[in-house]
């Protein structure tokens, strides 16, 4: 589920009220996309809508609204000289009150408490649609596949929709966004210096990471990530066998301590054939060697050619573990942007 829901639940345990500040419409050059959100209480701020004077003013407005009786308000900001920013675009922000017990907040909590098998019925799970008109604020719907393009505010969405958006229904504006998001799945094989750096880097990105190695003593998360629910650790003596457990369209990153193990994993991924990314740490020479072996075993040429080795962006030449991890994270980010 989106991080903002977990953060909202946590903040409402500590604060009586929270103002949600959400980017609902953009025009031109702007620092954040539609759906970017910040949660503001009297004491805390979680998330960002882009920083700068826009965010500074938004925080002040959000805190003023904690004492207001109005549930929602939309404001347009021109990112020009008057705001002390030079992006040149426009951003419309939605300011929403959230307190424990409000209908739509309770609706989310109830939805989270149910069996979410229905998420798998369509690629983007359930959607939360909230009315953003001052006179009808508080109206909300949590909808699934059966309502998309059919009825209610979700009627204006298409089955291919994946991005938050404003929609019009019965003369009112609603903001619809996915409640449950299928994040990219990364299966990382190897817990050496580079593997650890990759874990630290990918923990900053919206993805789910499965980290695998033969050596249990190497699979140690830093204290800051020990409670991170998006990271799963598997210790096994048969790394290649783990490939069969991965979901379809997973991203595989292979960097074990053994070239033989790397090859076995690589071949297992090629044999599955349903990967979104296949990267193997190493040199051009290692790639040529793996390619020859896979060709000799009559694996499909198109799948072999899709193997990335070396991993990461070619423009980053540093071999420091942190640099390799950053380069890989950038390569995956570009891939996810292009295919989502």
Task: Walk me through the topology.
Blueprint: H1 3-14, E1 18-27, E2 37-40, E3 45-47, H2 52-65, E4 72-78, E5 90-98, H3 103-113, E6 127-131, E7 140-143, E8 165-169, E9 172-178, E10 185-189, H4 193-202, E11 208-213, E12 231-235, E13 251-254, H5 259-272, E14 277-280, H6 284-296, H7 301-305, H8 321-339
Parallel strand pairs: 10-11, 10-13, 11-12, 13-14
Antiparallel strand pairs: 1-2, 1-5, 2-3, 4-5, 6-7, 6-9, 8-9
Going by CATH, what is the homologous superfamily of the largest domain?
Answer: NAD(P)-binding Rossmann-like Domain
What is the total domain count? Answer: 3
Unreliably modeled segments: 115-124
What is the CATH top level name of the largest domain? Answer: Alpha Beta
Question: How many DSSP-defined strands?
Answer: 14
Query: Strand sequence of the main sheet, in spatial order?
Result: 3-2-1-5-4
In the CATH hierarchy, the architecture of the largest domain is 3-Layer(aba) Sandwich
State Rg: 23 Å
Q: What oligomeric state best describes the polypeptide chains here?
A: single chain
State the secondary-structure class: alpha/beta
Helical residue percent? 25-40%
Q: Please report the number of helical segments.
A: 8
Kindly identify the CATH topology of the largest domain: Rossmann fold
Secondary-structure element series = HEEEHEEHEEEEEHEEEHEHHH
Work out the strand percent.
Answer: 15-25%
Shape: elongated
Distance between the termini: 17 Å
